[in-house]
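Quick question about two entries, pasted in order.
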Amino acid sequence: MAPPRPSLTGFDPKKFAAASGNSKGDPWARYEAWRYTGPFTRWNRFKGAFPGLGIATVAFAGYLVAEQLFFKDEHRNHGEEHH
């Protein structure tokens, strides 16, 4: 098998990657890091996904409690059917 021919331009991608000093393999990792810090963390992105869900849950639970305490249907448990 013949040895690989040298590039006409003299550019060697392996030498270029070694000279960059980036050992992780992703040269853009430093520039992408901001996407996962500060207000863009996983928790902050999830927290903003459902605005008002906490208030709605508390209001619905309050409604269910009020319905059970104050708005009981007196005809429901007698076993009689009214037509």
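Here is the second entry:
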Amino acid sequence: MSCVRAVLPIMGSCIAFLLGILCLFAGSQRQLLPQASLLTLYTGGAGGPGAPDYFSVYTMSYCTGFQETCVSDETTNATTTKNEIVGCSDRNVLFTFNPSDAILKAMGTPSGSLSPDSWPTCITDDFEAMGPTNTTMVVFFIFGTTSAALAIAARIWSIACARASGNSRPPSYTGDPSPRFDFETPPSLVEFLIFLVISIRLTYLSLQLSLLSFGLASIIASVITTEFVKLINTSGNEYGVSATTGTSFLGMAWTAAVLQGLCTLYSLVDIFRYRARCRMPTSESAEQKPLVGSD
């Protein structure tokens, strides 16, 4: 049971690390989590003939898509709308989505310009104003993912130190040929300074930084996918332009933040538990005695 409790923070940080990677690299390719977008911008026919039907905006890129109406039931002639992504932009940490340039690029006229009558310039201005906020969110996601990796490495190192310390001790009772290894056994003074102060504290600090970074990034993402989407829907209502929030992205971001919060709490409890055990007086009956061979 102690071994299972020891690897719980590793499991939580591993999942948070993978979620952070997915949040950063979603939308880099058409097949890479196309549904995990920050928001989806629907042009509603604005931009002129040949303009894409929608853009999926991600943390470091965007994807261009068209909508196709298909007959889902020939008996009732019921139709359904199918979304198809045709291309994605390159990744960029300083990514700022410009819908005007994206429409022109999709139409094959990147050097041209859109008429104010065909596309609302206020939508483009809103996305440009959101650029610094998006960059800040990306930086926090990078910090959170990197800190999660550091927490994993620190925890593995602490377990390796504990295993080496446990294997170096003699068997706990006569007739036990195997060395004793138990995460519940308080370390010696030197092991305490190395294992507890350095290993567990390093894990705890890494988890704290990861929690703070993921938490701030998730808050920024929530603001973007709620308040900013409302602003786009209000500004583009006259032109038929609308936007929807990306629930999958928010789910991954907040899951990573919650997992790092639980791991941080676990590590904090672990620190107090080891301190309490090291301060407890050890009775002679509980002392480990070396194996004594019979003559």
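Reply: The CA atoms of residues 222 and 293 lie 67 Å apart. Helices lie at 2-25, 99-107, 121-167, 189-235, 247-279. Hope that helps.
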